[in-house]
Amino acid sequence: MYKLLCILLFILHVNGQEYDADCITPTGLASHCISINDCEKLKPLIRLPPVQREALKSWHCGYDGDVPRVCCPPTTPKARCYTVMGKAGICVSTKACPSIAIRLKPPVSTANLEYVLRSKCRGPAELNVCCEEPVRKPTLENTKANITADDRINIITSNPIEKVTANPVSTNNLPNTNSINIPNCDTVDIPNPDSGCCGIDSNGGNRIIGGNATAIDQYPWLALLEYSNTRWICGGTLISRRWVLTAAHCLVTHEMKSRNAQSVRLGDYNITNPGIDCVEVEGGGTDCIAEPLSITINETIIHPEYRAPKTFVEPNDIALIRLQELAPYSDFIRPICLPPSDVFQSPPANMKLIVAGWGAMSETKSSSDVKLHVDLPFFDQQSCRKLYSLKGKPIIWDKQICAGGEANKDSCSGDSGGPLMYSEEEKPFQITGITSFGVKQCGFKGRPSIYTKVISYVDWIRSVAKP
């Protein structure tokens, strides 16, 4: 309770501070209302002929004395965000979002505080939230009393500051004043990779044995399975608001008896802390997430051919978990993409895959307190089959893939059922594998771990995982 109180006081302090006037650019990005002389992207447009300079009207937001202020486009566009309810939004300060600001009016309830914390996103202010509705419009400030609002806007288009050149100027660099296309991710269907609703990691990374702790909001699709007789022995991956993907062996024994998985834990970072997790970030600040969610399992679906054919080890080791309630999307709970194609048919040179989870850090410690991640090399199938063979016959098949085999870098039993991930540059993360099995020694040189190849099951997943 003391921790919640401290966070509440911090939020109220930040919410009461005065920021530069928050505004939304005509292209839909959160930014600041500043003097046009300080806006490197729009300042050159002052020299354009009057007709071409009309575009500046939509960026106007006030005055500094007689100098127009504009909602200056950010140097780096802010990443799109998703509200607690899974709807697309814009990352702005708490003051600029009416639905959040009203929740912060004293007295602030615990429920409202947790809602605000779950709405956090990375933006220009000290405390930013993902806001669905249009934010407050900037006000026209520092203006002369005898000039109307229309007159003030017209100042921008009446040949101010410098004489216009006779030669026309190219309009190729004019800012696009059309609204950006922010997807609606409120659907309960499994999102497609090109939808912008999956595989989006809000953190670029603080770049498991051999692994490093992740940022607090990295890999928001990671899940932990909670059991009736033990806390966690397996992980999983959120693929939609309704479904979690995991390994079949995490849900049933080899005799097909249930392991009694009861619920799925989402949005966690430090599994030893039952409350709000906070970490120190660059610049001396603190980044926090609200308490994790545990959602009851409604149904488990094991692949009908799990452990068949018997000539291979753990074939078809894949299963789906249907959640009783829809997962609320935020920067800390979000789905990964299913693979759109087989990246292993023509893998790039030195292909690196990613494993993340709360797995074993060594053979003597069963799990990590916080999320970990590690890059693993792709291990070609031919070489892997030679390593995993019995009496000269391979015991893995083409619906399994191999990765790892570097000393002190691998996934361990605590990550069973968790994702093996891949992301091409500028593209969303996709789940390429599900951690299935490996040698007893974690991070053993020359011995990769084995993963269920997800692309081989995409049709089955989509046919089963209905809303």
From TrEMBL:
Belongs to the peptidase S1 family. CLIP subfamily. It comes from Pieris macdunnoughi. The lineage of its organism: Eukaryota, Metazoa, Ecdysozoa, Arthropoda, Hexapoda. This is CLIP domain-containing serine protease. It catalyses: Selective cleavage of 103-Arg-|-Ser-104 and 124-Ile-|-Ile-125 bonds in Limulus clotting factor B to form activated factor B. Cleavage of -Pro-Arg-|-Xaa- bonds in synthetic substrates. GO terms for cellular component: extracellular region. GO terms for biological process: hemolymph coagulation; proteolysis. Its EC number is 3.4.21.-. Keywords: Disulfide bond, Hemolymph clotting, Hydrolase, Protease, Secreted, Serine protease, Signal, Sushi. Pfam families: CLIP, Trypsin. SUPFAM superfamilies: Trypsin-like serine proteases. Residues 1-16 form the signal peptide. The clip domain consists of 35-55 residues which are 'knitted' together usually by 3 conserved disulfide bonds forming a clip-like compact structure. Residues 208-466 form the Peptidase S1 domain. Its main location: secreted. CDD domains: Tryp_SPc. Residues 22-72 form the Clip domain. It is found in: Secreted. One of its GO terms (molecular function) is serine-type endopeptidase activity.
